[in-house]
Amino acid sequence: MEYFSQILNAISAILPQMVVVGICLYYLLKKFSIDGVLLSLGAFFSLLITIFYVVVLPYLFESEIMDISSESYTIFLAIVNVISFFASVLFAVGLVLLVNKVLKAKSTTF
User: pTM, whole model, 2 decimals?
Assistant: First the structure.
């Protein structure tokens, strides 16, 4: 039963990220622009980080490859958190550029 709950937890965490990546890629394919690239890159790296936290990290602990009390674990998580920060910044900048583009387009139509 525990295995089933782990799979359900992984799906519930990864599925929304996959939807966001899909939407960003759809936008990028329809209208190739810098905001679409930033949104897609940010969403993709966020998906990779989510997969890491939900799938890879528990596997490393269960197989005893990594110990939570080790210094390498702390350094490893710091690196992952920095990557996550930059992914969020990429997505946020892309979103701001997209909002500005939409608002600018609406203001010229009135």
Answer: 0.82
